[in-house]
Amino acid sequence: MRLCWLLFLVAAMATFHLTLGVRPSARDLRHCPTSCGDVDITYPFGIGTGCFRPGFELICNTTTKPPKLFFGNTTEILYQDTDVRYVMASVVFNIATTPGLLGTYNRSWQSPGRVLSTYNDYGDISQLVIVGCGIDVYLFDGDTNIVQGYCRSECTNLALKEKKLSGLPCNGIGCCTIDFLGGVRAFRFTITQRQETRSSITVGNATIKAFLCSNNPLEEFYFNTADLLSEKINASTIGATWSYFSVAITDQPNCSIAQLGLNKTHYACSKGSTCVDEENQRGYSCTCPADSFDYGNPYLLHGCKQGIPIQFVATENA
Ligand SMILES: *[C@@H]1O[C@H](CO)[C@@H](O)[C@H](O)[C@H]1NC(C)=O
Ligand SMILES: *[C@@H]1O[C@H](CO)[C@@H](O)[C@H](O)[C@H]1NC(C)=O
Ligand SMILES: *[C@@H]1O[C@H](CO)[C@@H](O)[C@H](O)[C@H]1NC(C)=O
Ligand SMILES: *[C@@H]1O[C@H](CO)[C@@H](O)[C@H](O)[C@H]1NC(C)=O
Ligand SMILES: *[C@@H]1O[C@H](CO)[C@@H](O)[C@H](O)[C@H]1NC(C)=O
Ligand SMILES: *[C@@H]1O[C@H](CO)[C@@H](O)[C@H](O)[C@H]1NC(C)=O
Ligand SMILES: *[C@@H]1O[C@H](CO)[C@@H](O)[C@H](O)[C@H]1NC(C)=O
Questions:
Q1: How far apart are CA 221 and CA 268, in angstroms?
Q2: Atom number in ligand 4 closest to CA 99
């Protein structure tokens, strides 16, 4: 009798999860793709009906070899950690310029679903790297318009002209960087070309290249003259460019609102996980307890890897 009741509840909950897409179990997701090319896919991200939380839908583009995993049309996911704290993603801009003309170029990026933020936990700050000659760059928070920083790159350096520079940090010669002041969900930047005082390296029709990168010394970008001359950022020239992004649930402003009354049905954190407020009422994230080595996925029913006694199963959504 008791067993039937439990089974009924479990079945009802499964329907509930499927229709609302909140805290599904691993079983609910067993029809979902678990990877795209070399990249694992972890809920709340997913591909296909019933496989992702709203705002976290990914696209696997199989026309390339290996296939590439996209979030929106500008953000390529390269890695997702299994406890869903962050993703490593590539955001690049190849900006064609007109030779002989001094132009101004504006570009922007917005987090798909507004659920990613340029990562600045653990001391790894995201930075915008710009490869180009005779340029001034301003970076702005796309939501607040607050200036994140400025940099300038020149190509009048003799060693650069002789194409002898390689493996150098970006320091204003052919390349410069701007650190983000904090996590942002959207940014824009303006590149202004100016006449260089002395003749600079001949860059032909080379594009200005901009991309996000981690500022961790082990992971940051090192500049080669070839990067300046290449047409676009690709694996054989600049190499894989990527940055960390933190993941947040942004359909509610904070944990306490998300845990309240009606909103609770959309609450993303599974039992046994902890809700953590994002800065400035921008949402929340979930984490499994830190006392185990493998934290698990806090967005999945029973996702945290600690022994949850079976009698708590039926009460998860009560
Ligand atoms: C997949 O990538 C190719 C080549 O980059 C592109 O032409 C195509 O539009 C992409 N397809 C989707 C569904 O994004
Ligand atoms: C990218 O997606 C946005 C919103 O979905 C759309 O407005 C834009 O035109 C797309 N850009 C490209 C290059 O496909
Ligand atoms: C670029 O953006 C600035 C504002 O930040 C604006 O004044 C300027 O007209 C824009 N230029 C182009 C070419 O869109
Ligand atoms: C620049 O592009 C134009 C048109 O595509 C081409 O005719 C010209 O040869 C190119 N110049 C260089 C230096 O690559
Ligand atoms: C990468 O860029 C170089 C230089 O522009 C080019 O020769 C090469 O074909 C590119 N590779 C890919 C995979 O696009
Ligand atoms: C959560 O958000 C609500 C509504 O915006 C606000 O009134 C409340 O103070 C916030 N709580 C915390 C702990 O930030
Ligand atoms: C609950 O969610 C709705 C819609 O997302 C929102 O308008 C409301 O402010 C939230 N908070 C409460 C306490 O209902």
A1: 35
A2: 1
Q: Ligand 3 pocket, 216 CB below 6 A?
A: no
Strands 68-71 and 75-80: antiparallel
Cβ pair 254, 248 in contact under 8 A: no
* pTM, rounded to two decimals: 0.82
Which amino acid is present at 241?
T
Alpha-helical segments (H) within 49-193: 158-161
CA of 107 relative to ligand 3 center, distance in Å: 10
The residue to which tokens 């318009």 are assigned: 145
**Dihedral angle, C-alpha 129, 133, 138, 142, nearest 10 °:** -50
> Residue 226: CA atoms inside 13 Å, Cβ hemisphere, count?
10
pLDDT of the residue at 3: 39
- On whether the CB atoms of residues 204 and 231 are closer than 8 A, the answer is no
List CB contacts of 151: < 8 A, sequence separation 6 or more. Answer: 130, 136, 137, 172, 176, 177, 178
Per domain, the residue ranges of the chain are 2-71, 87-247, 264-318
Count, residues in the chain: 318
Fold for the domain defined by 87-247: Jelly Rolls (2.60.120)
> How remote is the CA of residue 183 from the centroid of ligand 5, in Å?
32
- How far is residue 213's CA from residue 218's CA, in Å, rounded to a whole number? 11
If we measure between CA atoms, which residue out of 196, 76, 176 comes closest to residue 128? 176
Q: What are the phi and psi torsion angles at 260 (to 5°)?
A: -85, 145
What does the pLDDT average to over 150-172? Answer: 81
pLDDT tens-place string over residues 192-242: 998 875 555 655 567 899 999 988 877 778 888 888 888 877 655 544 688
